[in-house]
Amino acid sequence: MFSAAIGRTRYVVLIAVVAVLLVSFSLFLQGTVLALSTLYNSWHDTIFNGIESQRGTLAIDFLEIVSTMLKAVVFYLIGVGLYSLFISPLNLTSALGVESLADLEQKIISVIIVILGVTFLEHFVRWKDPLETLYFAGSFALAGGALVFFQRVHSGQGSDLQQPEAKLRARRELFEHDDEQRHIEEEDVKRAEEATESKAEGKVEADAGAES
What we know:
Oligomer: single chain
Distance between the termini: 51 Å
Helix content: over 70%
Radius of gyration: 23 Å
Structural class: mainly alpha
Strand content: under 5%
Number of domains: 2
């Protein structure tokens, strides 16, 4: 009875899921409004002031839109990932390769690295203060390098359920049959067990080889 009660506390995660998804939707809406506003202003200035009026500013405005959308994607991945991991498995997360917190972590870090790249590109295009841009490039190199190193160190530590067949089936159910709920079949469990055993055997062989 007590174990069941503790297990059901996982539904507390719904609070975080709702909050994070609201942030994501807000960013998507703000990015859309920003895109429409930027398109209107850019064409208005182009028509009445000529194409020269857009030189040096248009790319920055569009990069800001891309950055906003990518931030929305980060929060969206966190929201659906937490829901799938703690509440109910989704075909969407399985199709994206998110089967564990480690997988979710890897996906988020990948998007963050892209956001860092876009942000640096914004500073580079502005090129107002070369020294400040150089400092920012150094900061970007340190942060991006640390994230890439973290990914390399933790690569391959995701879920054993990440089988190609399971991903393809999840995509088919999601996009062809419009089925959001993921159904874990017995064959998925068997494949996961086989993958776990293979990893364990590989580690044993590697250790044995090292000792010999």
